[in-house]
From TrEMBL:
Superkingdom per UniProt: Bacteria
InterPro entries, per database record: Acyl_CoA_acyltransferase (IPR016181), Bact_Acetyltransf (IPR050832), GNAT_dom (IPR000182)
EC number: 2.3.1.-
One annotated GO molecular function: acyltransferase activity
Protein name per its UniProtKB record: GNAT family N-acetyltransferase
Lineage of the species this protein comes from: Bacteria, Pseudomonadati, Pseudomonadota, Betaproteobacteria, Burkholderiales
Domain N-acetyltransferase: 3-145
Keywords linked to the UniProt accession: Acyltransferase, Transferase
Amino acid sequence: MNTTLRDLGIDEVDALVSLYQHLNAGDAPPSPEAVQAVFRHPGLRHFGVFEGAQLIASCNLAVIPNLTRGGRSYGVIENVVTDAAHRGRGHGQAVIRHAIAQAWTMGAYKVVLTTSRKDPAVWAFYERCGFDSGDKRAFVIRRPA
């Protein structure tokens, strides 16, 4: 089947939220206000791979203004997900490589990606996409419940 890769629009949020169940099963859907805020944010883009009309892979890219590195921005890729039935076919790599290319086009000097997955196969996947797991160390703090 034919696949396409493109930016997602607000009218595709239901398909995106449905796909996110493959990332974090059981997540509550966002409020309409949250959807509006996310899709209005000028530095945030969502990319999707479609097989026919079905969204099968996605990630988002935030490009953040910066005052170091000569004022060059940096990118952050998050929410990388491929429908479980479509994994292992290159769709995840394609959407990540697209996001990286968009970050370079937008003037970013680096792109950062973090994962909470502990599976070495997931880490190897990101390394095949060009990320260096030894370059930086990530620290995360979560808001208390």
